[in-house]
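=== RUN LOG ===
request id: a7f3
mode: sequence -> structure
chains: 1
length: 125
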Amino acid sequence: MTDSAPLSRRWTVIGSGLLCCALALVVIYTTRSAFFSPLAVVVVAAIGLAAVLLQLRARGADKGIHPPTWLNILGTVLALGAALGDLLHLSWQVAQILALAAIGIFGISGAIILHAVRKQHTASK
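=== RESULT ===
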């Protein structure tokens, strides 16, 4: 084992713990009826994407893996549109479509990042 392996593992464990804390806070401070809202799913999807991006940062982004920035910006804009649907006078159907589109984009972005990490990992072996 190299000296960087325990340090890398430590940051992975810390990142996983922070993700669990964030998800626990969402679950604890959210009423049961709110989980039927697509916005709650958007929050959980955004936390998941943040966890993937933090994992990428902990591994070192200099290794040729770059997150799809334009996809993350589009997902954030759609999530904000869904969250501010009342303020923007959007119907609930449009707000749900925006929320589900944001979830899909966050999922695609996370899948692209994880695919690049896996591809790089198998190439290094």
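=== NOTES ===
The mean pLDDT is 77.
The longest helix spans residues 92-124.
=== END ===
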